[in-house]
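# step 3/5: fold
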Amino acid sequence: MNKEPGCPARSLECLMATSPKREVWARVYSLLPRDAQGVLPLSVTIGEAIQSRHQDLDPDHVRSILRKVTVATRYLKRLRAETWRFDLDGNPVERIQRFHREFADGFLEFRRARAMREGT
């Protein structure tokens, strides 16, 4: 992965800045519902919604970007804390299910344990 000096390796902003698909990244990222704390928990059908409104975007790129966004630490922490998932317009559309919260907890715990092992 390309990395700019002083840019955290797994930072979404770093990925957007250094990706060869940075224009696609910026465009898809700009479509996602957010508030001052960052991207809101996304509807499970957000990919289809993006494709229906923006048919010129490559579905594989959209999926890849959404995958990176939804496994980001900031997003997973947000998923644990919120009650609702949001559509492209920022409207709450479905409750976050318990197994999604449990997945987020497990993934974050895995990252904490790995960071402790690696001493980072």
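# step 4/5: annotate
The domain at 12-118 is CATH 1.10.1710.10 (Fertility Inhibition Protein O; Chain: A; Domain 1).
# step 5/5: archive (pending)
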